[in-house]
Structures are given as C-alpha cells and as structure tokens.
Amino acid sequence: MRNFPKRRRPAVEADPPLPSFPQPPTRTTALLRRLAPLASTGALALLGGCSSVLMDPKGDIGMQEKNLILIALGLMLLVVIPVIALTLWFAWRYRASNTGATYAPKWSHSTAIEIVVWTIPCIIVVTLAALIWRTTHSLDPYKPIESQVKPVRVDVVALNWKWLFIYPDYGVASVNQLAIPVDTPVSFRLTAESLMNSFFIPQLGSQVYAMSGMETKLHLIANQPGTYAGRSAAFSGPGFSDMHFDTLATSRADFDAWIARAKASPAMLSRGAYEQLAVPGEKAPVALYSNVAPGLFEGVVDKYMRDVHGNPICGTGTATSTGAGTSIPALTLNSSVDRSGARAPAPLAAE
Length: 351
Description:
Blueprint lengths: L26 H22 L11 H34 L17 H28 L13 E7 L4 E5 L4 E4 L1 E5 L4 E7 L4 E4 L7 E3 L5 E5 L5 E7 L11 E7 L1 H12 L7 H7 L9 E4 L5 H6 L17 E3 L5 E3 L22
Parallel strand pairs: 1-5, 4-10
Antiparallel strand pairs: 1-2, 2-3, 3-11, 5-8, 6-7, 6-9, 9-10, 12-13
C-alpha cells in the first residue's frame, strides 16, 4: 500500500468575543433600589423614637447595674472588635487578585499568635469572673441598702392582672400605683396570688419574681424625683400587657400627703374586699385603701400552705402570727370565686 501524506486540517478561526453590554436592571432590582433609601429612613425614624430606660437609671442600684453592663460590654468588645477588624483585613489582604501577599500553604503554627489569642481572652475571663463575684454579693436584691434613713416597707402582691401594694407601717394600700420618698431605701416583700410574676422598675434596679406560697425580697432606692414605669416582666396570661403601674418618687412631704390621701379613702381593704380584688381583671384603675386588714400579706403567703383536709400547716392552729403578739386567721380558699376571670371584679375605689 502506498503511504499518502497526512493532510493537515485547516485551522478553524475562533469567533471573536462578543462585546459585553450592561444588562438592563430587572423590575425587582429597580424596585429594591427605590425602596432601599425609604427603608433606611424608616428604620432610623423608628430607632429615633426608642428610649432605653435601663440605661437612664434614677437610683443607686440602677446606676450600679448600668455600670456593670457597660464594663462587661467593654471587656467583651476588646475581643469582638479586633476579631471583626482582622477578619475584614485578612479577606482584603489575602484575596486571590493580590499577588503581593505572602503565599505560605505549608504554614501551620506561630507561637507569638498563640500567646496573643489565648492570653487576652484568659485575662478578660478572669476579670469578668472577679467582677461578677463582687457585684453578685453587693447587688444581692435581698441585701438591705445602707442608709441613715429608716427604710419604707412595702408588701407587694401580684394579682391577675394588677399590682397590690400594702404599706404595713401606715395601714394603707394601693392598686397599680406605688409611692416612695426620694433618697429613702424601700424594702419590698413580694408574693403572688396565683401565677408566678416578675416585679420590675427598670430605672430603679433589679427585677425579682413573685410566687404564690412564697416570699421574696427586694431593696431599691430612688435618688431623683419623678414618675417611673413599673411592669410585669414575666408573661402571665391575657392581661399581662396591661399589668403595669406608676412609681411616684416624691419628696418626703409629698409622700406624707399621699399617705394622708390613702388614709382618707372610704375604701377599706378587708379580707372580703381582698377576695373581690383578687378576681382576675384587666386594666384595673388606680385605687387607694385605708384600714388594711392586719396580717393580710402573711395570709396571702400562707394561703396555699394547707394539708389535704384544708387545715393550715404553717403557724399554730388556724392562725397566722403577725409578729406583733397577735394572730389572724389565714385566708381561706374561696372556691366560689371564678379564677378564670369569667366574673367581672367589683368596682374599685378610684383615687
């Protein structure tokens, strides 16, 4: 056979690249571009109406808690800010298009870097631990506030869905309004009628839980006169959103005048009146009561402390000691009162 020379195939010329033209924006892209400025403006407008009452304390306890939050935040930012900055810098420095960056695929260890990334967090953790240990004891809500002024005692009962404040030293009570004198420690005892709740005045300090059959304590002080919002900080049912009260921090003279108005109120907080007040109700108006039944708060605490036969298991016999040499009967469980809120509460005496 004859060997014929192989023919070369003619080279195929590649087609020239097509010119690139900017693609027209889609309707979605155009809409997003128009809405972006409006969304930014709306977000700034909404944030402009916000006010952090927690960062605007009006009492010594609240001020100490604010300082604790800021110090802890600052210590944690010592790690967060450098990490974020270095992450962005690394992404820019070692991008694929940067040919000037050092390429070291076999690099795996640096003693200097290990020392830095472990020493600084360890120092921060130790500092935070010491800070938390000290403030946990100094800001203990059960710890009385040191002062030359005698504290005002207030017994708090969390009802559904209203707050009852009893002043045992004055024999008066109020609903959804708390009056306290400025620069005077306030010693709270708290309990709940049924559902667990949380007592919180953000501008004065810590919140504490109120639980049925139990007594918790809280000590606060207001150093500036004003009206401070108090609220329930634990969801407790349909009336939770309206379970708030005003804290009136006034001068001693104005506080005494408020006590005088309460003593002049025609409404009396007897045990029967308390049973009517304990009926669940929403948006209860402010009410003042005079001549509070002795040992009412203690009776609420011991209300559920009974055996299977209904006999009280606290105190002696059927009485609960008031601590003043007298005894009063414990509150009985009133099964005729509908705790579900089906029956409307009796009208309260308004201020």
